[in-house]
Amino acid sequence: VYIGAEVQPGDILVGKITPKGESPMTPEEKLLRAIFGEKASDVRDTSMRMPPGTFGTVVEVRVFNRHGVEKDERAMAIEREEIE
Asked: Which residues of the chain have pLDDT under 70?
């Protein structure tokens, strides 16, 4: 998401993942784990999405990171834009 972007229902506004607790794996999870390895099923997508029936324009973007975690290219690009 970038400033000025048009957003519509279902678009991700805040990207977020949360760790999953240990529970019995479904067949789909077993397949994903077999294909992608251990990390594929350790987290689940809890991103905030645009609600149904709403449209808008992005007016502000913020990037939050934990201390000691490296920033990805997108986060660094957003910070460079803010400085300019």
From this structure: 22, 38-42, 65, 82, 84
Would the pTM count as exceeding 0.70?
A: no
Judging by DSSP bridges, how do beta strands 48-49 and 43-45 pair with one another?
Answer: unpaired
**CB-based contact 16:47 (threshold 8 Å):** yes
Please, what sign has the CA dihedral across residues 10, 12, 16, 22? positive
Tokens representing 54 are: 């709403």
Phi, psi (deg, nearest 5) at residue 49: -115, 160
Closest CA to 20 of 41, 34, 36, 39: 41
What is the gyration radius of the CA atoms in the chain, in angstroms?
Answer: 17
What is the structure's pLDDT at 38? 65
Q: Which two tokens stand for residue 21?
A: 């607790």
44 close to 22: Cβ distance less than 8 angstroms:
no
Give the pair of three-digit tokens for residue 13. Answer: 């506004």
